[in-house]
Amino acid sequence: MSEFKVSIVSSNEEIFSGTADMLYATGSLGEIGIAPGHSPLLTGLMPGPVRVCNEDKEETFFCSGGFIEVQPDVVTVLSDVAERADSMDEAKAIAAKEQAEKDLADNKDNVDFAKAASQLAEAAARLKTIQKLRKKI
Q1: Domain span at residue 117?
Q2: Fewer CB within a 10 Å sphere, N or C end of the chain?
């Protein structure tokens, strides 16, 4: 079976480097699947899971957003925050979501609503990633 190289990189470090025969993520225009031989592509990445599949093995990562670059034999995922989904803390994700919801509900002048909405979207995506991973196990 044909494969391609995958790198998932956060602002601090490379989270994953290996090969895959399929990669799934949520691009800025919807769900995308990348297989060997995919056309070159550069697209935005929405907060959520990135699944790297290789034969019978699948690894799931959470990315806070960023970009996916597809070249003939290499796929690079660039994200400010990227982490392995199995090491995510559900209690922290719930607390972050509740805080973002509270910030959005406040009618104070000093609340940055765009930032609070972004934090809410990221926290909701984290919870969705954790829940999807739990259903598989």
Answers
A1: 88-136
A2: C
